[in-house]
Amino acid sequence: MISGMRAGVAMARALPVLLTLTLAACSPSPATQALETPTSPAGTSTPAPSPTPHLFTVISGLNSVPSEDGDGWTVIGLVTNRSDIVAGEVGVRVTLEGPGGEEIEDQEVSLAIPHLGPGETAPFSAQFPGAGEPVAAHAEVTRYSLAGRERAEVEVANLRALATIDGRLAVVGTVINRSARPIEVSQLAILAADEDGISLALASSSAHRARLEPGAEGPFLAILPAGLDEPSLTPYADATFAPEEPPSRLTFVSAPVPMEDEQGDVFVVGVIRNGESRPRWASVLVSLQSAGDVVGVAQEFVPIPLGPGESRAFTITGFPRLASGAAPGAGIEGLSVEAWVDPVRPPDDGLRAVPLALQVRSYEAIAGTLFLQGTLENDSGAVVLSPTVLAAVRSLDGAPLTAGWRLVAESLEAGESAAFVLELTLPRGADLVMSEYDIVASGLAPAD
Predict the structure, then answer these.
(1) SS3 string of 307-353?
(2) Do residues 281 and 302 touch, judged by C-beta distance below 8 A?
(3) For residues 182, 318, 423 and 444, what is the CA-based torsion angle, rounded to 10 degrees?
(4) Are 88 and 125 contacting, i.e. CB atoms less than 8 angstroms apart?
(5) Is residue 323 part of a domain?
């Protein structure tokens, strides 16, 4: 049992039964469960089915910490694969035990990364909102699938933890493809521990490049909760080999520009273009740098695919607000931007973008935010999914000042209407009188 927790470090407490050896087996699907084997003709035999490989795991490092909002508890642990198979979709059942040995609550969670190879370790966390302080916690692997995949070689480097104004930690770093083939980075996670190696918090990446060519790299961001005192950080990454593709023709029309809103928060504005002859889904990842150091990472995914030859303005917000002294440089003048636009998924899902009727009823700027209100109508003659309003504001010389989009509903029936309010972040000192507006509505409908 791990004990001797230091007071004041996220109020973490060690739990009994921290090392468990688990033997898990894949449950056969209903279609493959054992059946009576028919009698074979003389002189022939029916081959016996191959036994399902077992996954041997060790669960260690179980620890409970108060939930970030103070209402409930979070249990964090590690699973190590002691078998020679690659497991996917690993599920872990976590149980809280009360003072009398009774089971308070339980739930099944997934590992922080989707695959676990031979000898590999991955963390997990289970949230128990409203739960009382547990006496102990238990965990066991309850499910998995056989992944049977090649292992892509990925490196996580340049980890830095930056304090934010609300006491949390913004962890930034670099993901590098060390393989000789393209990879898709499915998930990144950061485990924070104290000086004794006891787990205190687990956070998944909120922004990273999904696809990396051989030797390519990209930044990422993960946010850890408040109350951590200079923790040690351990990265976990999962990547698979991606199919070879021609170079993407998604490009920036011009370099993305950092701007500052009325509250002094930084956002980035730019324009992307689809130079291909087919629609493309895309993501934009932006890294803010000060004096050569990464001080913020944020990402945006387009809600409607870009049509062939289409250009679309974007605004990226949500960069962590760093505490004073957490990063070098001061003000927007000391910031530089590095950005990537990458294809996200091929438009082979049988859907196409269709225009929708739009009526804007009012424009109003309040405290550095532009509010656009109106109604959109599905006049396409068929049900549409993801009806979305997209808007951009440009100066008279064509430079983008802000842009954004708003998903209005999950779907709209033919002839159905829906009201919307779209909020756009404005740069400090923006002159809306001397600006141009571009507002459209679009949805997704089955391809003809």
Answers:
(1) CCCCEEEEEECCCCCECCCCCCCCCHHHEEEEEEEEECCCCCCCEEE
(2) yes
(3) 20
(4) no
(5) yes
Q: Is position 8 within any domain?
A: no
Is 215 inside any structural domain?
Answer: yes
Show the domain range for 232. Answer: 154-241
Cα–Cα distance measured from residue 448 to residue 438, given in angstroms and rounded to the nearest whole number: 28
Q: How far apart are CA 439 and CA 416, in angstroms?
A: 20
For 367-399, strand residue ranges (E) read 369-377, 384-395
pLDDT band at residue 52, thresholds of 50, 70 and 90?
A: low
162 and 226 together in one domain:
yes
Residue 300 has which token pair? Answer: 């945006």
CATH code where residue 390 lies: 2.70.50.60
At 333, the pLDDT band (50, 70, 90 cuts) reads confident
In the numeric block, the tokens 């060519």 are attached to 213
Distances from the Cα of 189 to the Cα of 120, 201, 220, 317, 355, angstroms: 14, 11, 10, 22, 39
- Is residue 212 predicted with pLDDT exceeding 80? yes
What Cα–Cα distance (Å) separates residue 409 from each residue in 86, 375, 376, 386, 405?
Answer: 40, 12, 11, 6, 12
Q: How many domains, in total, are found in the chain?
A: 4
More confident residue, 72 or 41: 72
* Residues 301 and 379 both lie in one domain: no
Distance separating alpha carbons of residues 286 and 275, to the nearest angstrom: 20
Structure tokens at 133: 């302080």
Sorting pLDDT into bands at 50, 70 and 90, what band is 135?
confident
137 and 212 together in one domain: no
Instruction: Identify whether the C-beta of residue 327 lies closer than 8 Å to the C-beta of residue 354.
Output: no
Residue 129 placed within a domain: yes
The CATH number of the domain where 203 resides is what?
A: 2.60.40
Name the pLDDT band for 9 (thresholds 50, 70, 90).
Answer: very low
- Assess whether 167 and 141 both reside in one domain: no
Q: Which residues make Cβ contacts (< 8 Å) with residue 102, sequence separation at least 6?
A: none
What is the value of pTM for the model shown? 0.83
